[in-house]
Amino acid sequence: MSKKDDMSIISLLARSKKRISVLKSLEKEDKIPSKISKDIKDNSNHVSKYLKTLKEAELVECLNEDDKRYRFYSITDKGKYYLDKVENEYSDD
Fold it and tell me: Do 44 and 59 touch, CB atoms closer than 8 A?
């Protein structure tokens, strides 16, 4: 991965604490969007958008893509790597 791609993903996460929260929610176990929504205290429409963006960046994956109503999502190794990187190197805290 190029440095430009690397910084693009870091920027994607750093711009949205909610995307980071979704990744954190998936760190412990695979979940459906409604459970993620409860974990991060945001509505399910927003969570679906966060998941779509994170999936496009290959930070999460859908484990049962064919199931339209009860999809489980999982954080990828790439997602774990960038979550750790953003939390440790680029957090505002």
Answer: no
Question: Kindly report the CA angle at 53 between 61 and 56, in degrees rounded to 5?
Answer: 55
Amino acid at 62: C
Domain enclosing residue 26, as ranges: 3-89
Length of the chain: 93
Closest-CA residue to 41 (of 17, 10, 11, 9) = 17
Q: Global pTM?
A: 0.90
Instruction: Provide the β-strand partners of residue 31.
Output: 73
Looking at the structure of the chain, the number of domains it has is 1
Q: What is the mean pLDDT of each run of 10 residues along the chain (93 residues)?
A: 84 93 96 96 95 97 90 97 89 59
